[in-house]
C-alpha cells in the first residue's frame, strides 16, 4: 500500500482535474463508466506486472488480445450456444500462449523480449492467415454482455476488475509472490536458496496470457471485433506498470501500484480528450508525461543498490 | 567471483578487437544465410523457377538497404546495453522533413540532408540524455520519444507530403551493375560502424559499457557520454534510412516508418545477427547477415507466391530459434 501512494496521489490529482471539466465523473454512474473503460488495460497491467517484476517483458499481449477477439468472433459467429465453450477456449489459449512464452524464455534461455516479439509476429501472422486478412463472424450477445452489461448498476467489467485485483494481491502475498519477487531481484540468489526459478517465471507468463484472455473478453464486448483490437496494448500495459513505480528489470514494485498506474493512464487519456488536446497531439503529451513521471520516480526514490555493486564492495 | 569473470570478459572484449567478439555468431549467421540461399534455390527450382536472377539479387539488396541502415544504428545502441524504439517514427519524420525542404528543387538537396541529419541527431541526443541524466529505462525513454514524434507527425500530416526532385530519387532506384546505390550506402554505413567499433577507442568503450556498466564506470569510462553518443549515431542512421525511403517514394510519408515496422524489426535483425540483447557482445557483421537473412526469406516467399502472413509466422519462429541456438552455444562455452 505504501508503495502505491505516489501513483494514487497522481491519480487523485488527475481525477480532480477531470471533475473540474466534467463533474459527471464524481457521480457513481460516471465513475463506474470510467472504470469500465479502464478495465481491460488494468487487467492487462496486472498480468504484465507479474512478468515485469520477475525481470522479463511480455510484448505479445497486444497481438494475443487481437487474436483472441478475432478467434472468438469467427468461432461464435453469432451463435448464442457457443458462448461458454468459446470463453473456456479463450482462457485456455491465453494460458497456453503464456506457457509457450515462459518455457521458451526459461528453458531455451532466449531473452523474453525476443521470445514475446516472436510470439507477436507468429500470432498476428497466424490470425490473419486464418481469417484471410479481415476478421469475420460476430460475437454473441451473451459474450458481449461481459464488456457491455452489468449486474444492476455495476458493470460486469468492474466486478471482474475487482476480482482480478483481489486475486493478484492475494497471489503476491502468497508464497508465489515472495518467490517471484526474489527471482526478479536476484535470480541466482533465489535459485541458490531453493526457488524453482523457471517454474515461477513460467507461471508469471501464464498469468500474463490469462490476463490477455480476460482483457480480450472485456474488450470484445465493449468495443466489438476489429483487427486492431489489441494494437499497441503491450506498450500501454508496460507503460502503466512502469508508471506505477515498478522497475523494469524486476524485483521492485507492487501489483496494486501497477493497476493504479493503468487507471492513471486511462485518466490521462480521458483528461486529454476533455481539455480538447485533439487527436494526434495527445500522443505527444502522453510521451512527455510518461518520461516525466518515470524520471520523477527515478530521482525521488533512493536508487536500488544492485547486487552487483554489493559484490564490487566485497571484492575491493 | 561473478564480478571477476564478468570484468574479465568485458576487458577481453575491449582489447581483443573484432576477432574475439564479432566473428563467432556472425559466422553462424552467414552459414545460415548460405544454407538458406541454397534451400531457396532448390525450392524455387523444384517450383520451376530461377532463384538467383539479376532481378531477385537486386531485389534482395534494395529490400534490405533501409532496414539494414537502421539495424546498424540499432546495433550500436544495443551493444552499449540500450535499445531504441523511436526509430520507426523518426524515419517517418525524416522522410517528411527531407521531402518538404527539397520541394522538388535540386538546389535544396544539400540543406534538406543537413536538416534531416541535425534533427535526427537532436532526437538521439534527447534519448541519450533522458536515459543517462533522468535515469529513465531506455525502453520507456525511447517509447516516450516515439509517442512525441508520432503526435507531432500525425498532427501536421495526414498523408504524403513534399516532393523529392528526380536527381535525388536516383538514390532510391539507380544501380551500378548488379549493385544498387542504396546497397552501397548501406555498405558504407556498415563499414564506418565496423571501423568505429573495432578500431577506435570509442568502439571499445561501447563494448565495455554494454558488458558491464558498473565495471566500465569504475575503470574510468564516462559511461553516460558513451550511451549518449550511441543514441545519437543510432538516430542518425534512422535519419539516413528516412532519406533513402523518401528518395524511393518521391515524397515524405507519415507512416513509412511504422508500416515497415522498423522499430521491432531492426531489433530482431540485430539479435538474429548474434548480438546479445543485454549488450557487450556482437557486432556489425552479424547484423548485416541478419538483415540479409530476413530479406532472402522474404524473396523466397515471394517467389513461391506463399501468403504473406505465413512470412510473419516463419519470421517469428526463425528469430526465436536463432537466438535459442546462440544461447546454447554461449552456455556451452562458459561451462
From TrEMBL, chain A:
Transmembrane segments: 82-100, 112-133, 153-172, 202-223, 229-248, 255-277, 283-301
Domain of life, source organism: Bacteria
CDD domains listed in its UniProt record: TM_PBP1_transp_AraH_like
InterPro entries: ABC_transp_permease (IPR001851)
Gene Ontology terms: cellular component: plasma membrane
Membrane topology: Multi-pass membrane protein
Any GO molecular function: transmembrane transporter activity
Keywords recorded for this protein, A-Z: Cell inner membrane, Cell membrane, Membrane, Transmembrane, Transmembrane helix, Transport
Location in or out of the cell: Cell membrane
Name the UniProt record assigns to this protein: Autoinducer 2 import system permease protein LsrD
Organism annotation: Nonomuraea fuscirosea
Automatic annotation (TrEMBL), chain B:
Domain of life per record: Bacteria
Entry keywords, A to Z: Cell membrane, Membrane, Transmembrane, Transmembrane helix
Annotated InterPro entries: ABC_transp_permease
Cellular compartments annotated: Cell membrane
Segments passing through the bilayer: 28-46, 67-91, 111-131, 138-157, 177-197, 226-247, 267-297
Family annotation (CDD domains): TM_PBP1_transp_AraH_like
Pfam families tied to this protein: BPD_transp_2
Lineage: Bacteria, Bacillati, Actinomycetota, Actinomycetes, Streptosporangiales
GO MF annotation, one: transmembrane transporter activity
Cellular-component GO terms for this entry: plasma membrane
Protein name: Ribose transport system permease protein
Amino acid at each position: 500500500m505504501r508503495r502505491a501512494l505516489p501513483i494514487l496521489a497522481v491519480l487523485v490529482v488527475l481525477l480532480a482535474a477531470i471533475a473540474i471539466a466534467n463533474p459527471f465523473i464524481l457521480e457513481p454512474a460516471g465513475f463506474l463508466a470510467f472504470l469500465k473503460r479502464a478495465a481491460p488495460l488494468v487487467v492487462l497491467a496486472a498480468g504484465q506486472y507479474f512478468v515485469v517484476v520477475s525481470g522479463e517483458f511480455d510484448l505479445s499481449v497486444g497481438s494475443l488480445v487481437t487474436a483472441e477477439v478475432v478467434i472468438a468472433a469467427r468461432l461464435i459467429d453469432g451463435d448464442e450456444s457457443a458462448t461458454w465453450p468459446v470463453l473456456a477456449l479463450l482462457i485456455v489459449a491465453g494460458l497456453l500462449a503464456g506457457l509457450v512464452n515462459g518455457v521458451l524464455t526459461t528453458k531455451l534461455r532466449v531473452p523474453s523480449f525476443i521470445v514475446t516479439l516472436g510470439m507477436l509476429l507468429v500470432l498476428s501472422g497466424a490470425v490473419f492467415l486464418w481469417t484471410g486478412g479481415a476478421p469475420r463472424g460476430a460475437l454473441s450477445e451473451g459474450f458481449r454482455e461481459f464488456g457491455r452489461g452489468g449486474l444492476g448498476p455495476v458493470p460486469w467489467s468492474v466486478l471482474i476488475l475487482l476480482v482480478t485485483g483481489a486475486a493478484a494481491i492475494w497471489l503476491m502475498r502468497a508464497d508465489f509472490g515472495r518467490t517471484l519477487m526474489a527471482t526478479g531481484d536476484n535470480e541466482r540468489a533465489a535459485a541458490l536458496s531453493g526457488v524453482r526459478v523457471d517454474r515461477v517465471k513460467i507461471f508469471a507468463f501464464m498469468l500474463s496470457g490469462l490476463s490477455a484472455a480476460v482483457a480480450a473478453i472485456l474488450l470484445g464486448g465493449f468495443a466489438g471485433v476489429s483487427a486492431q483490437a489489441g494494437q499497441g496494448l503491450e506498450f500501454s500495459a508496460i507503460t502503466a506498470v512502469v508508471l506505477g513505480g515498478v522497475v523494469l528489470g524486476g524485483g521492485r514494485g507492487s501489483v496494486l501500484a501497477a493497476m493504479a498506474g493503468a487507471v492513471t493512464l486511462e485518466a490521462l487519456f480521458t483528461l486529454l480528450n476533455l481539455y480538447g488536446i485533439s487527436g494526434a497531439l495527445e500522443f505527444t503529451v502522453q510521451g512527455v508525461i510518461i518520461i516525466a513521471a518515470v524520471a520523477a520516480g527515478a530521482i525521488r526514490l533512493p536508487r536500488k543498490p544492485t547486487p552487483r555493486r554489493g559484490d564490487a564492495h566485497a571484492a575491493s | 567471483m561473478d564480478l571477476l569473470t564478468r570484468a574479465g570478459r568485458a576487458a577481453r572484449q575491449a582489447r581483443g578487437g573484432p576477432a574475439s567478439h564479432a566473428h563467432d555468431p556472425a559466422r553462424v549467421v552467414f552459414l545460415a544465410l548460405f544454407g538458406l540461399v541454397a534451400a531457396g534455390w532448390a525450392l524455387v527450382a523444384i517450383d520451376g523457377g530461377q532463384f538467383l536472377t539479376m532481378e531477385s539479387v537486386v531485389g534482395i539488396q534494395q529490400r534490405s538497404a533501409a532496414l539494414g541502415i537502421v539495424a546498424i544504428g540499432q546495433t550500436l545502441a544495443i551493444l552499449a546495453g540500450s535499445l531504441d524504439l523511436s526509430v520507426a517514427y523518426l524515419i517517418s519524420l525524416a522522410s517528411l522533413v527531407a521531402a518538404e525542404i527539397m520541394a522538388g528543387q535540386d538546389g535544396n538537396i544539400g540543406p534538406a540532408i543537413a536538416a534531416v541529419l541535425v534533427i535526427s541527431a537532436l532526437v538521439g541526443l534527447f534519448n541519450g540524455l533522458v536515459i543517462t541524466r533522468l535515469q529513465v529505462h531506455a525502453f520507456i525513454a525511447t517509447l516516450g520519444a516515439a509517442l512525441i514524434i508520432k503526435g507531432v507527425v500525425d498532427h501536421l500530416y495526414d498523408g504524403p507530403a513534399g516532393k523529392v526532385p528526380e536527381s535525388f530519387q536516383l538514390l532510391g532506384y539507380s544501380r551500378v551493375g548488379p549493385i544498387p546505390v542504396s546497397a552501397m550506402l548501406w555498405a558504407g554505413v556498415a563499414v564506418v560502424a565496423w571501423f568505429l567499433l573495432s578500431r577506435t577507442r570509442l568502439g571499445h568503450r561501447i563494448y565495455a559499457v554494454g558488458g558491464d556498466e558498473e565495471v566500465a564506470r569504475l575503470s574510468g569510462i564516462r559511461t553516460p557520454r558513451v550511451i549518449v553518443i550511441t543514441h545519437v549515431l543510432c538516430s542518425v542512421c534512422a535519419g539516413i534510412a528516412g532519406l533513402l525511403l523518401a528518395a524511393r517514394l518521391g515524397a515524405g510519408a507519415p507512416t513509412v516508418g511504422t508500416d515497415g515496422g522498423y522499430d521491432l524489426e531492426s531489433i530482431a535483425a540485430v539479435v538474429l545477427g548474434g548480438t546479445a540483447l543485454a549488450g557487450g557482445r556482437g557486432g556489425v557483421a552479424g547484423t548485416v547477415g541478419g538483415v540479409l537473412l530476413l530479406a532472402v526469406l522474404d524473396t523466397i516467399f515471394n517467389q513461391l507466391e506463399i501468403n504473406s502472413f505465413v512470412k510473419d509466422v516463419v519470421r517469428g519462429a526463425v528469430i526465436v530459434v536463432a537466438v535459442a541456438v546462440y544461447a546454447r552455444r554461449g552456455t556451452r562455452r562458459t561451462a
